[in-house]
């Protein structure tokens, strides 16, 4: 028995050594999926999808802003990694290239850069605009004007800038007066009605064996005699993924401390966060998507009936906006819920923020006329989505209308402006959560 234990120990040591011998800077195809900070080009459509026998009548687009810098608080946290860079010693098991990259790492962002659109973000929206212009010439066949092309943006600078560069690439004009949402807008003002509560599954996952293994592996590869705090691990991860989002061909220094398994665990951490805050983990989140999906239905209904209306509808917002529409439309729904305990079982999950919500993520719908019949295709990040109820990607408009009209017209899909602020903070751990929900649903 003792012999078996010794052999097993040697195998584990050798496996750890093999893992540490891997050199990130020599990896030509490093792991690219970083949850909500994934680069758009990694997950967007790799080909153009068109309907050659159909004429587009209206294009409806809801887009997250393009790639941005970290928020100011994260910039401070990432700057603190200089302590670990300076104290890195030969106890580290990093290869020479990775060791030297961390030693030479420089972080130039300051608080004034916080959350601002960067050069890659400009390219994200500019290139999206050019692709859509090329694919849908019948939509973009007129000069820009706010009647033919309806535009609305979040009042955040990164969203306004995203709208600006999208319109500039499509219409070759500088639209400096981007229409912004007002305080009572219920299409894009998700935060006004969102319930914020304790995410127990996320907390449990951060204390799970999966995350503890990440902490131990990263601490060991840095040659530390103690385990790092999760917050420090997260700062290293944020440094890695924000740099990768700016330059997809780069090898950011702090990425070297993570194995692919580590990155998959941290990606699942992001998935759990959004699954419960904006996804199917809380059925209330489906309600949040009602106003924006109702807007989509109303625009397509008017256009299908040849009523006056824009040829293009373009909204620019944030992750929560895109998630709310995806959830209300029923895409990326898993039959098994994401839990802190089933990471391994959910590796092939549909709810992956890397695929659903990279920088510049978008949900788009196109209304076509095909041989006299109106049809609709939905896209997530330019990839056509299958409407599972009908098994179609190019679906009859009447079927889509019949499917969603009862939902968005339901009293449970409306909001009371007078009591919206009462339901923004709830917890799942005490009676306040139950009181919050009961009070909310008392109002139709």
Automatic annotation (TrEMBL):
EC number annotated for this UniProt entry: 3.1.3.62, 3.1.3.80
Disulfide bonds: 54-370, 240-255
Reactions the enzyme catalyzes: 1D-myo-inositol 1,2,4,5,6-pentakisphosphate + H2O = 1D-myo-inositol 1,2,5,6-tetrakisphosphate + phosphate; 1D-myo-inositol hexakisphosphate + H2O = 1D-myo-inositol 1,2,4,5,6-pentakisphosphate + phosphate; 1D-myo-inositol 1,2,5,6-tetrakisphosphate + H2O = 1D-myo-inositol 1,2,6-trisphosphate + phosphate; (2R)-2,3-bisphosphoglycerate + H2O = (2R)-2-phosphoglycerate + phosphate
Subcellular compartments: Cell membrane
InterPro entries: His_Pase_clade-2 (IPR000560), His_PPase_superfam (IPR029033), Histidine_acid_Pase_euk (IPR016274)
SUPFAM superfamilies linked to this entry: Phosphoglycerate mutase-like
CDD domains to which the protein is assigned, alphabetical: HP_HAP_like
Name of the featured protein: Multiple inositol polyphosphate phosphatase 1
Species in which this protein is naturally found: Macrosiphum euphorbiae
